[in-house]
Amino acid sequence: AHIIPALGAIPLQKLPPERLQAYYADKLVRGRRDGGGGLSPRTVRHHRRLLHVTLENAVKWRLISRNPADAVDPPRFDRKEMQALDQDGLNEFLESIKETEYYPLFYTLLFTGLRRSEALALRWRDVDLVLGYISVNRTLHQLNDKSFVFRQPKTEKSRRAVAVPPSLSIVLRQHHETQQEQWALCATRLSDDDLI
Questions:
Q1: What does each C-alpha distance from 11 to 3, 4, 52, 175, 185 come to in angstroms?
Q2: Does the predicted TM-score (pTM) go above 0.85?
Q3: Could you tell me the CA-to-CA distances from 49 to 43, 61, 134, 158, 193 in Å, in that order?
Q4: CA angle centred on 73, ends 71 and 78, rounded to 5°
Q5: Cα 119–124–125 angle (5° rounding)?
C-alpha cells in the first residue's frame, strides 16, 4: 500500500539512498492513505526496517552490491509522554457522558485498560460479573470498505482475563438490565451472542 507505489518501479540497482530518504520524509508529511496527514515516525521506522531487511536480502542474493538503506538515517521521533486523566478529570469526563449510550463503553475502557477493538467485540458471555472478570477472545475492526470483521487477538498474550472492579460490575449490570428492557420491546428476540 505504501512502498510498492512509491518505490516499486525503480530497479534495485538504481535505488539511491536519497530516494529512500525522500520516501521517509514524504511519509512523515503526507503518508496516510486517507489524506489526513503523515504517518507516525514509529510507523515510518517500521517501513525503514522492512526496506532494510529486504535490501539486505538483495545484497545476499547478489542482486545489488550494497544496501542503500545503510546510508539513510532512520526517522527520529520523540516518545510523547502520555497524558493521563487525574481523578478530577476522570470524574468530570464520566459525569459529562453519564446520560449517553456510551457511558458503559467508556467506563469499561477506563477501568479495564481494554483496547477499543477488544471492548467493542465483547459479548455478554465474555463477562462474568459474579467472579468479576472479562475474557478477551476477539477484536472488532472496520475495514476500508466500511464493513466490520471480528478477528482473533494479534498475540496469544492478548487473549486474557481482565479483572472487573466492583463499580464496573454495577455499571454493566445496569446496562444489561436496560438492554434486556429494550430487547423486550423488540418484535424478535435477540440472541445471547449479541454484543454488549
A1: 13, 12, 16, 59, 65
A2: no
A3: 10, 18, 36, 24, 41
A4: 175
A5: 110
CA distance 140 to 78: 30
Point out which residues pair with 149 in neighbouring strands.
141
C-alpha cell at 47: 517501513
- The amino acid at 85: L
- For 71-113, the pLDDT digits (tens) are 998 777 666 787 888 999 999 999 999 999 999 999 999 999 9
Helix, strand or coil for residue 34? Answer: coil
Specify the DSSP class assigned to residue 195.
Answer: B
For 134, the grid coordinates are: 472479562
- Work out the angle at residue 37's Cα, subtended by the Cα atoms of residues 68 and 29, and round it to the nearest 5 degrees: 35
Q: Label residues 22-38 b or e (16+ Cβ within 10 Å = b).
A: ebbeebbeebeeeeeee
* 3 CB-near residues (< 8 Å, 6+ apart): 23, 47, 50, 51
